[in-house]
Predict the structure.
Amino acid sequence: MGTASIHEGVRRMRFSSLLDRTEAKELTQEAAAEMLGINVRTFQRWAVRYEAEGDDGLVDRRMGRPSPKRAPEEELERMLGLYRDKYSDFTVKHFHEQLVKRHNYVLGYTVTKLALHTAGLVRKAPKRSAHRKKRPRRPMRGMLLHQDGSRHVWIEGLPAMDLIVTLDDATAEIYSAFLVAEEGTASTFQALREVISEHGLFCSFYTDRGSHYFYTAKAGEKVSKRQQTQVGRALSHLGIEHIAAYSPQARGRSERVFGTLQGRLPKEFRLAGITTVEAANAWLKSHYIAEHNMAFAVHAEQDGTAFIADRHEVWRETLCVIEERTVANDNTIAWNGRRLQLPESRLRPHFVKAVVRVHAYPDGTSAVFLGPHRLATYMADGHELPPDGHKRGSALGALKDKPCGRAKSASLTAPARAAGDVVQVGAEKRSSSRTKKLTKPKKRKTDSAVAAVP
């Protein structure tokens, strides 16, 4: 006996009891109808049928008849066949999306799920545990960003790799996602460059306590606030707060996103025919991220954004590996097993014993700075690159070719003809004629003047 039959039996008993009470004037028809959850007109029709046919008049005439809104059996069989043949490892929601997208499927998600349950192809989800109170989201985009990596076999036939995802806390939008062999400083900088170049600087950055994010004196203890990694140094320079998570539960939003991605991305890669990391990263940026955000992103509590444009693009010289080196006696520094020769500069005669900074960029090039001045740029093999877009000695490649100090001019005592000549100071001894003081010539006495003398 099904649930509908049981409900019909209960309804019959309740109706007969209430009908007797209405006939005895204990209840009005309106009160009896309200107790049954029907309107008065329906109660009156049931009373007429009960008097004419008895209990048989109360039988639900819909029982045993197929619903006019029932899904077509042919479409359900087609759906079940597709699931068995091609999508057996998909979740029901993901499977339904692919049916609508690729197979002109028009039935709803609930009908599809119930049909899969009835056919025994999908198990019902287990009952959820006790309710946990979620941490409220930030009210505005750009206030807090999550970044994390998940190691998984993302592409069939390739070993496990790390998927680096950066998403917004307010909306759950994914701003950056790509595959790398192993998570580290380089992958973090790459994700930050993608986000900041497109959206701008943000307020806070929430990550785990990986060694490329924080220094931790002892495993399991709090992170060090004195020592900074390359990532910590860059975030501090950009004015972004770095927050450490001390448990997987604290990163619940990113963990749930990775659960969704692990269930979807490998199948999506397979359907798209992607077999290489390069093709996967290009496809993620051009197709998947937008589709994922459309399906799973939520609206922020407040309009607007907390992102701020980096108009001077400080991030270009900040989101890179920066280390200090001391210049040797031959004006070279040691870097990556090579000796980088510093060229001559107008800043100083030499750089021996000077402490300089080396900026290592993602493309393999590097640059040497003395304070704000770029001294030279080098290729990955250590050869110096010709100045292109910056001058030697310029501040971070942004200043124009301005002379350092006051330009030399001709001596104030030099003759006019020497205005175009190069003045040599201290090269030769000046002639004595140039150093003698000029005197006025004495006037000769005339004869008349001599005669006038007594």
Q: What stands out?
A: The two ends are 169 Å apart (CA to CA). The longest helix spans residues 3-23. The chain has 13 helices and 13 strands.
